[in-house]
């Protein structure tokens, strides 16, 4: 239900524009199939924190079945993928999973999401493109 309240990026151009014009905020994009249970769970959590992070993050969703433009470039093969951008640059984060480009787990804990987004934002403010997540997802299948 949360995804209907989050801004949808309906074309590749819209995705590019969101990344280009982040307005000094972290741009969080959830890539995946809107109809999948995993995406619905993550969207619900993202919607729940959107108000709390609005000063330093903009949250968007992109259905990879409708906008396949980035599937190959970003290797969007997982049911749900969270990616982070700042100043037209892809932000990297060590989540403890071996995958630093994106978060591909179903994270439903609002505080974990806030902590990750805030850490990425703080790193971006210091000019860093790579940060270490305060949450270790190495043992999580679902968080």
TrEMBL record:
GO BP annotation list: mRNA splicing, via spliceosome
Record keywords: mRNA processing, mRNA splicing, Nucleus
Annotated Pfam families: DIM1 (PF02966)
Keyword presence, Transmembrane helix: no
CDD domains, per the entry: DIM1 (cd02954)
Stored InterPro entries: Dim1, Thioredoxin-like_sf
Protein location: Nucleus
Gene Ontology cellular-component terms listed: spliceosomal complex; U4/U6 x U5 tri-snRNP complex; U5 snRNP
Top-level taxon in the UniProt lineage: Eukaryota
SUPFAM superfamilies: Thioredoxin-like
Family to which this protein belongs: Belongs to the DIM1 family.
Function: Essential role in pre-mRNA splicing. Also essential for entry into mitosis (G2/M progression) as well as for chromosome segregation during mitosis.
Name the record gives this protein: Spliceosomal protein DIB1
Protein's organism: Starmerella bacillaris (Yeast)
